[in-house]
């Protein structure tokens, strides 16, 4: 009989130090709750910390306010995300927190240094950018759905400029709705990517986005043109809607989830939870008939959920019911971009539809005469 495969042991450590910059509770892309902090482990040594145990936040706030050092047992060290220290620190519900003493005084962490986009354009891929201030231009009218480690995630692109250079910025998930065209923002903890030899920026789970005073910069000449928008109104001829269920605790995909289940155990973290707590992400393909031609379009979760909310269709519980709903509509108005991605789905105005049908019928009679 074969012996079971041993799981690799995750090394944990103990750290002691002062607590700084405790953030509010946040939600990751997988809807897991966490907060950030900075741990001072020596006179001039600071480390970013991510705490996946929201119940510890009050303890961290008290330690920060009172200047009390803490001893943190069962923490993990990871590669520094910002590159400003040797490592970052990960804490979870297994981490023990106790009051301690340390042989150094508390000091404020150094402030993030602002980087110009000209400096960013010379960086290699995978570099963390602590802070940039820029103006947003040419926000893509639609988002794309891409698979990241087996899970569908939404991304939207825009152009940014700070007067020194202009770059493309990829906005992921929660950051998509925070950014508007022609507004100025401070972005922290972005990451660089290189695509077709050009440096781009992308948001990360740690990215913060705040509005700043309008920057006196204009869009550079030769920047990317706005995507062309097209629309078609007609019947949905065929479609496939896919639903990916994600665990709200660890974000992993659930292949065995059933729509009618009251409780479900996550396949990855093994936590039993209520079925309605799991996250549904929709995507798919639709074929719509226009007056002159047929269009095959990709549709994202954002477009589908906006349609469902607009027309109060939350009672459509599974993808089959959603598909049947679209097939039952005599006409759907679809806006899409030049990459055949659906931007908006609308039901036609009833009065306008009746008028169009009457006009078409009158035309048939006159041609018959």
UniProtKB/TrEMBL annotation:
InterPro entries: NA-bd_OB-fold. It comes from Astyanax mexicanus. This is Uncharacterized protein. It comes from the Eukaryota.
